[in-house]
């Protein structure tokens, strides 16, 4: 094996090579930016700035779905970022695995809570 481990002959190891995660971060960011723009337009063109006006907006099924998809994008965006932090800075595998599992449990719980908030009766 050559001693210069740079350039096209470098040895690449590990489970994550970067492009998929980089792309996921960009796609989820675009989803969140789009939702922010929809909220901004709704705010700027709203005629009713009361609780009832905002509740009416969030009562529409399409808006609930858009909100939930944005939350899912946020949670996946957070997962990719936190997983990379754990992989980069936590070297003992058992501690890293425990932190990754705790992160997944927390994000799934947040997704469940978001669904409950959006679709409670």
TrEMBL record:
The family database entries (Gene3D superfamilies) matched by this protein are listed as: Fumarate reductase/succinate dehydrogenase, transmembrane subunit
Question: What pathway annotation does it carry?
Answer: Carbohydrate metabolism; tricarboxylic acid cycle
Just give the chief location class.
membrane
Q: Which SUPFAM superfamilies match?
A: Fumarate reductase respiratory complex transmembrane subunits
Q: Which cofactor does it need?
A: heme
The UniProt entry, under Pfam families, shows:
Sdh_cyt
- Does the keyword section mention Membrane? yes
Transmembrane parts of this sequence: 27-46, 58-76, 97-119
| Alphabetical list of InterPro entries matching this protein | SQR/QFR_C/D, Succ_DH_anchor, SuccDH_FuR_B_TM-su
User: In which compartments does the protein localize?
Assistant: Cell inner membrane
Q: Which UniProt keywords apply?
A: Cell inner membrane, Cell membrane, Electron transport, Heme, Iron, Membrane, Metal-binding, Transmembrane, Transmembrane helix, Transport, Tricarboxylic acid cycle
Q: How does it sit in the membrane?
A: Multi-pass membrane protein
Describe the task this protein carries out. Membrane-anchoring subunit of succinate dehydrogenase (SDH).
The entry's protein name is Succinate dehydrogenase hydrophobic membrane anchor subunit
Organism expressing this protein natively: Herminiimonas aquatilis
Question: Mind giving the lineage of the organism this protein is from?
Answer: Bacteria, Pseudomonadati, Pseudomonadota, Betaproteobacteria, Burkholderiales
Q: Which gene encodes it?
A: sdhD
């Amino acid at each position: 094996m050559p001693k210069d481990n740079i350039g096209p002959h470098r040895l690449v190891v590990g489970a994550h090579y970067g492009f998929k995660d980089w792309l996921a971060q960009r796609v989820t960011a675009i989803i969140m930016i789009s939702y922010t723009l929809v909220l901004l337009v709704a705010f700027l063109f709203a005629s009713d700035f009361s609780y009832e006006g905002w509740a009416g907006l969030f009562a529409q099924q399409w808006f609930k779905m858009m909100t939930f998809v944005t939350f899912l994008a946020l949670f996946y965006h957070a997962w990719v970022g936190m997983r990379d932090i754990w992989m980069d800075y936590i070297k003992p595998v058992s501690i890293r695995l425990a932190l990754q599992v705790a992160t997944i449990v927390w994000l799934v719980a947040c997704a469940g809570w978001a669904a409950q908030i959006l679709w409670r009766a």
